[in-house]
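ok new one. same drill as before - structure tokens go in, u give me an amino acid for every spot. 540 of them this time. try not to just spam alanines like last time pls lmao
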């Protein structure tokens, strides 16, 4: 299915972009991570990469032309795919724009006037509003991983002020303004939609509270004052009695009750009045109103034992906000599981020779490879001999890749990332070992580059180091298969009609039945078995 590529917003102030040059032409094959064009923004000229694979079917903006953000830039899809419907929509939109030219002129005039007013207001207040940028064409929201500047720090143009986690990767965000960092609108670990207020940079003399109010945010001081007023009201409501009953059995003094209510949760005025009259402590209740607010029915239905249990259950739960990586993993794996018909092939290989080979190989000076490195190499060589497994499904055709790009699943705090070993079949064991270690270390620090996590043709997931004997994985689309690797275990096996103790390893190949038939997957596993049980062949 064709993908519409729109003009991205590459800076927080960008409203339109100019295509300086196209680095691809219509008919070219595009891979994820390829640089499509150079785009000139209001700040700089930047490279624009593709987040989709396919053929470049259409270029909507010629080099040297300028269009607004979100205008159609290009179309990427399958070879010979019919895109007339997309072009008809564009022509229809252009005709509609001509028909309503007078209305558009008035609207543009109004926008210009509003922009002038906004510019004048900014000049008077001497500050700049920094918004959450759209750092990829599919980005809808971003998470601030780290602030590299704090409120009060001086910021120069080009300074990296934060690291922002998108749906693709964690990227550095630089400032296009200079001044003092006056306000941070999104705390570390929090997410916000594109165009949400990220920060305010301006002159030290700027009235920060006024600046915050001007962009529609709550006044922090006013909010604190409101909380104090509500607390005073609650204390007054408790002054009508010298002593009150708690849970219908225990008497406590008025002052003790006031102190216990100081950290109350939100309740309606009627609920507070009823609680005071009945001697019910509000922090014993779980509100059923909007936002957990305690309302009339909560007081009426109050039962000490039941409500206390609910409160304990609520306090014993921890809610963890979903990171962008976790959201992306959830979406992609769900899409894969429900769109690709998975089936699984389970095998068990003897790895006595693999263990001996690794010991001999690592006896060399300054050499250390893991079992995972050997499996990657053996898998890559097997894929080069079975392109049907090293494939990709699309609606109109199946692509058999000649290159072998192996994705290696790496566990990080937020879930999984899959850095890619490009041309893995051509790498030697030392190169594989060094690259995997480097990827694993930088994955933990969220320092992987965009092109290092894109373009895989096959994926390996290894949980053997955690003692997992066997498991199945969900295919990492657009791959057609993923190999799950279990731990090495010792067990009795039959060799030459005798029972002996050997080392074995279980592997599971998950296949997309649209591209790989059972026989094809089985032949691939036979080749892989030959490499693993006779590891000297990986050096030949």
């Amino acid at each position: 299915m064709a993908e519409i590529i729109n003009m991205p917003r590459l800076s927080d102030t960008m409203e339109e972009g100019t295509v300086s040059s196209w680095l691809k032409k219509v008919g070219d094959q595009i891979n994820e991570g390829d640089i499509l064009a150079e785009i000139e923004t209001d700040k700089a000229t930047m490279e624009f990469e593709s987040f989709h694979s396919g053929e470049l079917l259409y270029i909507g903006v010629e080099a040297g032309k300028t269009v607004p953000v979100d205008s159609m830039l290009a179309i990427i899809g399958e070879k010979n795919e019919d895109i007339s419907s997309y072009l008809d929509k564009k022509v229809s939109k252009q005709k509609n724009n001509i028909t309503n030219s007078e209305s558009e002129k008035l609207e543009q005039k109004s926008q210009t006037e509003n922009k002038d007013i906004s510019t004048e207001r900014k000049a008077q207040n001497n500050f700049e509003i920094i918004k959450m940028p759209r750092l990829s064409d599919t980005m809808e929201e971003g998470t601030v991983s780290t602030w590299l500047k704090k409120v009060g720090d001086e910021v120069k143009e080009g300074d990296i002020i934060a690291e922002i986690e998108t749906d693709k990767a964690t990227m550095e965000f630089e400032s296009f303004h200079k001044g003092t960092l006056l306000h941070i609108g999104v705390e570390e670990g929090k997410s916000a939609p594109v165009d949400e207020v990220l920060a305010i940079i301006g002159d030290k003399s700027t009235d920060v509270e006024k600046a915050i109010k001007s962009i529609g945010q709550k006044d922090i001081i006013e909010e604190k004052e409101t909380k104090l007023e509500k607390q005073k009201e609650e204390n007054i409501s408790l002054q009508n009695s010298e002593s009150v009953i708690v849970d219908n059995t225990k008497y406590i003094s008025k002052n003790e009750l006031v102190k216990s209510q100081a950290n109350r949760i939100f309740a309606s005025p009627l609920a507070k009045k009823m609680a005071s009259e009945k001697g019910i402590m509000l922090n014993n209740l779980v509100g059923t109103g909007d936002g957990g607010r305690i309302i009339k029915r909560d007081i009426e239905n109050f039962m000490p034992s039941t409500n206390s249990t609910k409160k304990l259950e609520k306090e014993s739960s921890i809610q963890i906000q979903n990171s962008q990586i976790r959201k992306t993993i959830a979406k992609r794996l769900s899409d894969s599981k429900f769109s690709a018909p998975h089936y699984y092939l389970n095998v068990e290989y003897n790895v006595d020779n693999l263990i001996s080979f690794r010991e001999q190989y690592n006896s060399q000076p300054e050499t250390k490879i893991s079992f995972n490195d050997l499996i990657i190499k053996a898998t890559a060589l097997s894929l080069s001999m079975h392109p049907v497994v090293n494939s990709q499904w699309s609606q109109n055709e199946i692509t058999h890749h000649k290159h072998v790009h192996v994705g290696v699943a790496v566990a990080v705090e937020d879930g999984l990332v899959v850095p890619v070993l490009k041309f893995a079949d051509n790498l030697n064991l030392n190169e594989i070992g060094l690259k995997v270690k480097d990827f694993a270390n930088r994955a933990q620090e969220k320092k992987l580059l965009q092109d290092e996590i894109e373009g895989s043709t096959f994926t390996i997931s290894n949980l053997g180091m955690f003692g997992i004997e066997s498991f199945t994985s969900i295919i990492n689309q657009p791959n057609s298969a993923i190999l799950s690797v279990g731990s090495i275990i010792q067990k009795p096996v039959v060799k030459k009609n005798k029972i002996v103790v050997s080392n074995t390893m279980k592997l599971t190949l998950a296949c997309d039945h649209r591209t790989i038939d059972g026989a094809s997957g089985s032949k691939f596993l036979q080749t892989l078995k030959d490499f693993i049980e006779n590891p000297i062949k990986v050096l030949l």
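The first helix runs from residue 84 to 99. and btw The chain has four domains: 3-99, 119-217, 231-315, 324-539.
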